[in-house]
Amino acid sequence: xxxxxxGIVAEGSIGHGRETAVGLAARGARVILACKDREEGExxxxxxxxxxxxxxxxxSELDLSKFASVRKFARHIAEKETKLxxxxxxxxxxxxxxxxTEDGQELVFQVNHLAPFLLTNLLLGLLKASxxxxxxxxxxxxxxxxxxxxxxxxxxxSETPYDKKIAFAQSKLANILFTKELAARTAETSVRTFCVxxxxxxxxxxTYFDNKVAKTIVSFAKHLFLKSExxxxxxxxxxxxxxxxxxxxxxxxxxxxxxxxEDFALDKALSENLWNVSEDIVGDITGLGEASIETxxxxxxxxxxxxxxxxxxxxxxxxxxxxxxxxxxxxxLTKENIETTMRNRMTYEEGNSESTVGSNxxxxxxxxxxxxxxxxSSQVSTAENNLxxxxx
Length: 392
Fold this sequence. Notes:
- It is a single chain.
- The protein has 392 residues and is an alpha/beta fold.
- 32% of the residues lie in helices and 23% in strands.
- The protein has an 8-stranded mixed β-sheet with strand order 3-2-1-4-5-6-7-8, sandwiched between helices. Strands 9, 10, 11 and 18 form a 4-stranded antiparallel β-sheet that branches.
- α1 packs across α2 (38-52), α3 (67-80) packs parallel to α4 (107-122) and α6 (164-185) packs across α9 (268-282).
- It is globular and about 50 Å long.
């Protein structure tokens, strides 16, 4: 059961996305259907409610072809939720003629990869706040058609003649690479990631038909002989809920079974390059539950038996003590960002800031939730516009 859990299904208004929402709602989850068309989204909510009897289904606007919409949606979720248990991307673009979004990006790559990359990172703090969260991306076996054609350094095809088949396949490879890289970067957290081919089988190649008549025939045959939308959703739901795969983060699934990936889809350097390229394009990916930029007034640094207690003062004049678990790495609070390493787990408390250390004015960056920190065996040093707590 998923009672008390929150799931977001992006592009979940039709097809296997809508059926995924049915599967989550039927298990007791509260479900947010996130899609760009309100009428379609609200109709999907009614469909899910009718099939499950759940009243815990709602629509929220999200257009993956617009980064501004992704950020607005993420802010909306971060403002009203304290955790997120399941995040699923079930839709996306099929191959199309070369088209650019208002953000200046090739449409298929933005909708299928860049927007999910951005939204996942923005909501990562809420995902980490869950005791056990899952992130699931839909991909396709057609990624395997790629070999030397892969080029994430020219995702807008400015230097390469556009090939819509390769563009689509590359976006599906990006889903796989991102799944594996995110799994590596969240390995020490409660977050688990999976990618799924919900369609599978011989008809994956129907995507490559350019001729409308041929594509219509193949699509008709698919509905006659292959999976229904409800059947397609089963592998997605499996990756959202199945307990036996909780230690298999970063894996690829089809028909509720793990499948091997081509060697090039396991290339760590390629996945790291994709992450860097994606971050350069989308801009700030700081998690909204982790580090919304504010300033904090550091009132006092107090030595305790456990280390250093940082006391912060918010705008209202009240102080908030800040504590963190034992830390094996440095923490720097700077004007630009809060840097934490993989082994540094931070917790937060609501509060804003503006700040001094003793009598020296220090403008620092923290989250809207004032950072709580206890560092064992530490010393505190200050420099202009910088407070650093350093392991001895």
